[in-house]
Amino acid sequence: MNKISIITINYNERDGLKKTIQSVVSQTLAEFEYIVIDGNSSDGSKKVIEEYKDKIDHAVSEPDSGIYNAMNKGIRAAKGDYVLFMNSGDCFYKLDTLEKAAQLIDGGHGIYYGDLIYYNEKKKRYEDWIFPNKLTLGFFIENSLPHQGSFIKRSLFDSISMYNENLKIASDWEFFIIAICIEKVSYKHIGLVISEYDFTGISSDPKNYNLVNSEKHLTFDKHFSMIIEDYKLIKVLESKRFRNIIYIKQFGIAWKLLKGFSNVLLLFLPGQDHSYRGYRN
């Protein structure tokens, strides 16, 4: 069985850190490595680490330059074949989750990923967040694999790269899209709920959406410049409005009405080639 390294990074999130450590050390899997990287917290996090020091294989508390600097420290310290990030606030779905995942990780793929569970505030209930079996560039345009649900072969960080510390939020997304879409790293969806997703994280904060999008654009400009226009088209094709149009096309009368309305509307718009006006069958 491949050894797994669990890495937790933390900065001034004492309660979340304690929650995560308790979840990790309570797992039924007998053998795994546990690493905690703290950014020299001043909120009592160091005391939490000290409290659980006999359960932690490697721990440091020192200043860092950000999330990905801390994650890279954890990677460098890891001795396991695969690493999984369970950062402060993350927790495993069940006590035997890691044991079940370890049985499914046979070493034949570079990345194994599972699913998440999250609390739907609108519906006031927990729901599964299921990821696809096939990963494409189109998937990564709007999504990413979850760091708290992905087991990444440690050697990939040597052969591809460590996390890009110039990015503040989207570096793990950049790693996945390069590994899978450019380097063609093999992957497998193990179909197991790994952890509970916490929407209070930095990448889920609406205030950071503009930064996330700008960092993603940097990645596309650097690695996918030849298909940037296709990328824009994919975003249109994946939009809700376009999917609505495809749905309407199934109904003859509604489709004719939509085509007729579009032809009328185009008469009032400049610069459109008349031979391309309207939707075609």
Quick summary:
The chain is of the alpha/beta class. It has helices spanning 14-25, 45-51, 67-77, 97-104, 137-142, 156-159, 171-182, 209-223, 228-237, 240-248, 252-266; strands spanning 4-10, 33-38, 58-61, 82-85, 91-92, 111-120, 125-129, 150-153, 187-197. Helix 1 runs parallel beside helix 2 (45-51) and helix 7 runs parallel beside helix 8 (209-223).
Give a structural overview.
By secondary structure, the protein is an alpha/beta fold. It has 2 domains: about 5-225, Alpha-Beta Complex (Spore Coat Polysaccharide Biosynthesis Protein SpsA, Chain A), CATH 3.90.550; about 240-275, no CATH class. Helix content is about 40%, strand content about 20%. It is built from 11 helices and 9 strands. Strands 1, 2, 3, 4, 5, 6, 7, 8 and 9 form a 9-stranded mixed β-sheet that branches. β1, α1 and β2 form a beta-alpha-beta unit. The N and C termini lie far apart (about 55 Å). About 30% of the residues are buried. Residues about 275-280 have low confidence and may be disordered.
Please write out the topology.
Elements: E1 4-10, H1 14-25, E2 33-38, H2 45-51, E3 58-61, H3 67-77, E4 82-85, E5 91-92, H4 97-104, E6 111-120, E7 125-129, H5 137-142, E8 150-153, H6 156-159, H7 171-182, E9 187-197, H8 209-223, H9 228-237, H10 240-248, H11 252-266
Parallel strand pairs: 1-2, 1-4, 2-3, 6-9
Antiparallel strand pairs: 4-8, 5-9, 6-7, 6-8
Helix pairs in contact: 1-2, 7-8
